[in-house]
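User: quick one, sequence for these tokens?
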């Protein structure tokens, strides 16, 4: 089993620094918001799999940089077709 190291992370929602694992960018207080936004993006991508970050941002009113963070975390990936960051 590989050990996961805790490190200082910056929350992508409120900008607060907290102790967490590499690859996650959400503090405990923002976890619900994080999951809610993530679900919205996932639902949108299921409907429009060829959307890029800008289109998702405009359709859902979510900041583009936030969407890019989800992609960097490896949590968002195309369900089909081509998917580009911008
Ligand atoms: Zn936060």
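Assistant:
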């Amino acid at each position: 089993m590989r050990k996961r190291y805790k490190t200082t992370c910056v929350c992508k929602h409120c900008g607060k620094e907290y102790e967490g694992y590499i690859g996650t960018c959400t503090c405990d207080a923002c976890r619900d918001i994080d999951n809610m936004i993530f679900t919205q993006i996932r639902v949108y991508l299921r409907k429009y799999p060829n959307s890029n970050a800008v289109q998702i941002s405009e359709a859902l009113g979510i900041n583009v940089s936030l969407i890019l963070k989800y992609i960097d975390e490896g949590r968002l990936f195309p369900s089909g077709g081509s998917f580009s960051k911008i």
